[in-house]
Every structure is written in C-alpha cells, then in structure tokens.
Amino acid sequence: MEPRKKEKRTALLQAALKLFTEHGFHGASTAQIAKHAGVASGTLFFHFNSKEELIHTLFREVQAKILSRINESLTDEKPVRERFLATFTELLHYFLENPDEFKFLEQYHFSPFDKHSNYSRSEDNPLRKLLSHARQQQLIKDAPMLFLEAIAFGPLVALAKEHANYGTPVDAETVRLTIEACWDGLKIS
C-alpha cells in the first residue's frame, strides 16, 4: 500500500477508535469518523466496504498488537503458573497503557460484532489455551472455561475499567497483587 494511502487508513482507524470509545458503534457515524480523520467521507469506503468491516478490521489490528505483546510470555519453556502471571501481567499493562483500545475491546466483546469473529471463544485463543493447559495439568480448578475466564479476567478487567474510565493510577504492586489474585482464584487449594 502506498504511504499516503496507508496514512489515511491509519488515520481512519485511529479516528474510529476514538469515536467508538466516546460514542459507541452506533453513535459514531462514518461521516464523523472521516471528518475526525481529516479525510473525505468517500475515502473511508475506499479503505473499508462498510462500517462493520471497519469495526472488524480495528478489532483484528488491536488483537494483533495484544498478541504481539503477550507472545513472548506464552512460551512453553516456562512453567504454567509463571506463564500465566507473565502473560496476564503483560495484558493488564497493555490495557492500562491503551485505555481506548481496552474500551473498544470491551465494547466489541459484548456486541453482536463479536459473534461474527467468535475468536474470544475459539480454541485458537492463546489465553484459553493457557487456561486449558493449566486445567489439564490439574494446576487449576476442573471447571468450565466460562468460570475459569471469569476468575482469570474479572479482577484484571475491573482494574483496567477503573483506570480507563476514571484515570485511577495503578502502580506495579497493584498489578502484581491483581494478577496473583487471579491465579489464586483459579488454583486448586
């Protein structure tokens, strides 16, 4: 892709992220996104066939950034507990550093759009694989995946929401305690 076209595409994705987090998927029109990106309305449809395609593309790009960030901590060379702590710590740090992306992911996950991608519930999801592996090794409770995800993500998401919505400062000790609490809630007593 030509540099100028790539710049416009990037500007559209950044504008969409900002407006979706401020106004929701339905509250942010394609015209507003184009205007916020500093491009003509038709330019959006040159890059994306529809608003829905824009939303899915933005999701895939944010997801790729997160996977890139946590990929190193997922290596099989480490014990499962260490992998869990490292991976979920990286994930929480990512959410704290990127509050708009966190808000977007939350919105996407709980919208009809996520039903089309189904990635969060896919066996290919590396975080689900990690939980499944820990369960197979009998390191965590033998419970349904929905329960394991609720315990693993609940405190992490609550802290990220507090930071994203209210700007609450979160220090390294709070991150450590939160992620350890997630593991402690999962592990077999």
Would you write up a description of this structure?
With 189 residues, the chain is mostly helical. The chain has helices at 3-27, 30-37, 41-47, 51-70, 80-97, 99-109, 112-117, 126-136, 145-166, 172-186. The chain starts with a helix and ends with a helix.
Give me the count of strands. Answer: 0
DSSP helix count? 10
N/C terminus separation: 54 Å
Could you report the average pLDDT, rounded to the nearest whole number? 94
Class per helix and strand makeup: mainly alpha
**What series of H and E elements makes up the topology?**
HHHHHHHHHH
* Estimated helix fraction: over 70%
Low-confidence stretches: none
The dominant shape is elongated
Q: Give me the Rg, rounded.
A: 18 Å
Quick structural summary:
The chain is an all-alpha fold. Helices cover 76% and strands 0% of the residues.
Give the helix/strand layout.
Elements: H1 3-27, H2 30-37, H3 41-47, H4 51-70, H5 80-97, H6 99-109, H7 112-117, H8 126-136, H9 145-166, H10 172-186
Helix pairs in contact: 1-2, 1-4, 1-6, 2-3, 5-6, 5-8, 5-9, 5-10, 6-9, 9-10
Features:
mainly alpha; 189 residues
